[in-house]
Amino acid sequence: MCGISGIVRLDGGAFDPQVLESMTHSVSHRGPDGYGFAAISSRTGATLQIHDRPIQNYSGIFTREPFDIGLGHRRLAILDLSEAGNQPMKNGAGDLWIAYNGEIYNYLELREELKQKGHRFASSSDTETILYAYQEWGESCLEKFCGMFAFALWDQKQKRLFCARDRFGMKPFYFFYDQNAFLFASEIKQFFCYPSFKKEPNDPMVYDYLAHGFMDHSEQTLYKGVRQLMPGNSLTLRANSPVSGVHIKPYWRLDCDFLPDPSPSKNGFPDIFFDLFSRSVRQDLRSDVPVGSCLSGGIDSSSVVCVANSILRETRTSPGQRTFSAAFEDKGFDEREFSNAVVEFAGIENRVVFPDMNKILEELPRVLNFHDEPFGSTSQYSQWKLFEEIQRSGIKVVLDGQGADEVLGGSHSCYGARHLQLIKERKWTSLFREIRECRAHHRYKAPSILKSMASVLAIRSLGPRLAFLRRPAWMGKDFFARARQNLNGPAPRFSENILTDFLAHLLQFNLPALLKYGDRSSMAHSVEARMPFMDHRLVEFLFAVPGEQKICDGWTKAIMRNALKNRVPGKILWRKDKMGFVTPERKWISSLPTNVLDEALSSRAVRDSGYLDRDEARKEFLAIARGQKPFKFLAWRILNFRIWLDRLRASS
After folding, report:
1. Active site residue: 2, 141, 306, 438, which one?
2. By CB neighbour count within 10 A (0-12 exposed, 13-18 middle, 19+ buried), where does 578 fall?
3. So where are the chain's domains?
4. What is the pTM assigned to this prediction?
5. Is residue 151 over pLDDT 60?
6. Fewer CB within 10 Å, N side or C side of the chain?
7. CA 225 – CA 30 distance, rounded (Å)
8. Confidence grade of residue 557 (pLDDT, cut at 50, 70, 90)
9. Is 163 one of the annotated active-site residues of the chain?
10. Which phi-psi region, left, alpha or beta, contains residue 398 (left: φ > 0; alpha: ψ -120 to 50)?
C-alpha cells in the first residue's frame, strides 16, 4: 500500500521536479518506508531513477534533459521488504515504468504463469508482476488481476501512459489536467502543490453531499476540475497529446443480465461460497509482515477473523492473529459481548479502543485534513480511532469485513427489494412467509415493510434523479437551481431481478464512499486494510445466486450463515441486530449545544456561499434534536462541511 503521483506534460515542455517532489511527500503517511521518483523523456527515451534522495541533488540533470514524464512514489513495504521492491519500478528492458498502489493477491499464480512464458523476475514483489503481465498481455492483463490497485504505467514503445483502478475502487486514483499538464495522485491534496490548481467547490457534488450524504458515486469530486477514475476503468494518454487525448474505458462491469449460472444445485451454494470466501481470505493473508483484523462483533468481521484464524493455524506456527475492536460504555452501542465471543471461540488476542465522542469536534480538522473531503457520519471517527490503535500496536496490515452488506444483502432495506421480487414472480406463499419472519425477527410493522418497498421502487424508477425531486427548506434557492442542472452518476441498469438491481445500486451509491473512508483512515496511520468480501470472483458468484440465498425466512446473508455453521460462534451467526463500528451518533448530535451549529452556520465561508438558508437549517437541527422530526445526519454534514469549506476558502 502506497501513495503515487505523476505529471505528464501535454505541451511538449519539461515537468517541474519540485512540484512532483512536493506532490509525493504530501502523502508520506501512505508510505513511510521510502520514496522514489522516475523522470522520463518521451522523445529521447532518457530516464533518471531516484530513490530516497532529494530531487534537488539532481538539478543539473534536469536542466540538461527535457523530461516530460514524472512518476513519484511513497512506499509502505508489505511484500518484498528489500530495495528490489522500490518504486517507481522498471522492467528489465527499461521501456516500462510503473507507480503502483495496492496489492495483487493472486500475484504468485500470475508470476508462475509469466515465468513459464519466459519472463525473468528481479524481485518477489507484486509490482513486478504487473509490469510483466502488461508486457505479455497488454491492457487485457487487468482481467487477470485479483486485488485492490491503482497504478500508472509508462510505455515508452507506445509513448503512452496507461492507468487503471480496481473493480470496486478500493484504491484511489484522482486526476486533474489543464492545457499544460496531466496530473494523477492518490489523494486530492497532492494537486495543491501544482501552481495552476485552484481550490474551488464543485456545486453538484456539494448538493449531493449536503442533501443526501452521497459521495464518490460519480467521477466528480467536491473539488472543481478534480476527477476520479471510476472503479473497473482504465485511462490512456498519449505523449504530447492535447487534453482530448485522455481516453477512459471500462474493463469490467457487474452486468446482472450476463452472469454465469453459479451452480446446478442450490444445495451446493453454501459450499461454493465457503470455497470462494476462504480462498479470498487465504490470498489476502499473503504478506511479508504480520496481518491482523478489525473485529466489530458483527457477522462480517467475525467471519473474516474466524476463517483467517483457522487458515493461519493450518499454515503457521503462530498462535493466531491479533484483532482490534472499538467499544463504548453506552450499552446501546457496545458490541464487546459479541467480539468477546469471537475472541474466546478463536483463542485470539484482542485490543479494544474507546473513542471519546467529546473530543470529536476537537479532532475533526485533523481528520478532515487526511480525508480531503467531508465524510458522512461519526462512524468514520470510530474507524479513525481504531486505526490509530492499530498503528500503535505495530501492525501494518489488517483484514476488514467491508462490502459484505452490499454483496450479500445485509442491509435491512434489502427486505423491500426481496418482497417486491416475490410479488413480481407471484410467489405469494414465499412472500407471506418472508414478511412473517421479517416481522418476527425485527418487530417490523406493516407500514415499515410497505415503506421499504416504496423506497426501492422510487430508487429503481428514478435513480439519481430521485435526489432532485424537491428543494430542502434549509438549502439556498439559487444554489439548488445551479446544482440540479447536473445529475451525478449514471442511471441504474435494470435486470430481471429487483434485489440484484438494488444491490447494484448500493455498490454504486453506498460502497465507494465507505471504501474511501476506510482507505483514508487506514492510510493516515500507515496501515493497509484488505477486504476479502471484495474479491470479484466471490462478488460475481453472489450476484448470480437466487434471491433466497441472500434473504431467506427473514434472515439476511442466508448463504453465509449456512456456509459458516460451526466455523463462527452461533451467537454471532444468528444475530438479528447489526451495528458495525458505530458511534452513539444520535445521542451525541441531539446533545450538541445550539451555539456549535450557530457558529458553523455563521461561518463567513458558509454565509457567502449561499449553500444554506441559515435560519431554516437551524430550525431543522432543533426539530431533530428535540425529537420533533426523524433523525437525520444533516447536523453532522453541516459541521464538517463548514470546516472543509473554511479551509478551502482560507487557502485559495
Report:
1. 2
2. middle
3. 2-250, 266-407+508-547+562-573, 409-504, 585-651
4. 0.93
5. yes
6. C
7. 24
8. very high
9. no
10. beta
